Amino acid sequence: MPAVAYVNGRYGPIENAGVSVEDRGFQFADSLYEVVAFLNGRFLDWDKHLWRLRRGLASLFIEGVPGEAALLQIAHRLVARSRYSDGLLYIQVSRGAAKRDHGFPAGIAPTLVLTARRFDFAQRLPQLEKGVAAISLPDQRWARCDLKTTGLLPAVLAKQEAQAAGAFEALFVRDGPDGRKEVTEGGSTNMYMVDGRGRIVTHPVSARILPGIARDTLLGLARAAQIEVVERPFTLEEARAAPELFLTSTTAPILPIVRLDDAPVGAAAPGPVSRRLGEILWAEVRRQTGWRS
Ligand code: PLP
């Protein structure tokens, strides 16, 4: 079965789906998106993703998007049509299509696109055992990284550079106070270090990072397991000296980083805190969805 799409009321194969060349998502990246995992046919953390989408729509003054019950119904129908049991549901909302002009056009309806694709979550389990490599790069994004907009060019360039270097992820680094280089997050992931006392340290939620759904779930689970969490920016120097680094996202629920730039992280193998969090997080995935690898 090919991937399937929904565009403004119509379902069909993804190859036949399209939007206007005047769509503001295409013209201006005037659009937001969400990526929701489904495993065993069930959505993971659906309510949190919808909360973030609603928050983004309100921040960008995009109105007229179907309500949550209607979105869930479309999402369920699309996944059912796809016949995939494990995959990624992509939701994109743009301000709509109109003659090209920067200001908001009056009286247009938003464009709503959903797609469902197959995704093999089981591939993450051996990666969790082995760990992945990352490189550090300057964070060249805008000042509202908390909004999940489709304006992803800096992330595209950074992730391409990581890929060319044989790395899984690019870690963004920005000047903090006193010119210290702070790690904000990854190109498409949130970032964490484990400090010498076994605490998880991660950048606080702010306009400098995306409030990741996997981040929110992981930190909740960690606190419930009595693992201390410190939300503060950390420097690239601290990251280089940390015993463990790891990342989270919807598509890579948790992965240890065992190599940063040209140096090993800790013992160059996933450490005890990352491994424990891996067990806890995947147990939560199974609890929510009934997924079995
Ligand atoms: N940070 C950035 C910049 C991202 O693009 C993503 C996901 O695409 C994340 C973090 C992780 O967010 P989530 O856990 O909601 O997938």
Description of the molecule:
- It is a single chain.
- By secondary structure, the protein is an alpha+beta fold.
- Helix content is about 30%, strand content about 30%.
- The chain has eight helices and 16 strands.
- The chain has helices at about 25-30, 45-60, 70-80, 125-130, 155-165, 215-225, 235-240, 270-290, and strands spanning about 5, 10-15, 30-40, 40-45, 85-95, 110-120, 130-140, 170-175, 180-185, 190-195, 200, 230, 235, 245-250, 255-260, 265.
- The strands form two sheets. Strands 7, 8, 9, 10, 11, 12, 13, 14, 15 and 16 form a ten-stranded mixed sheet that branches.
- Strand 11, helix 6 and strand 12 form a beta-alpha-beta unit.
- The radius of gyration is 19 Å and the shape is globular.
- The model has no long low-confidence stretch (mean pLDDT about 95).
- The protein binds pyridoxal-5'-phosphate.
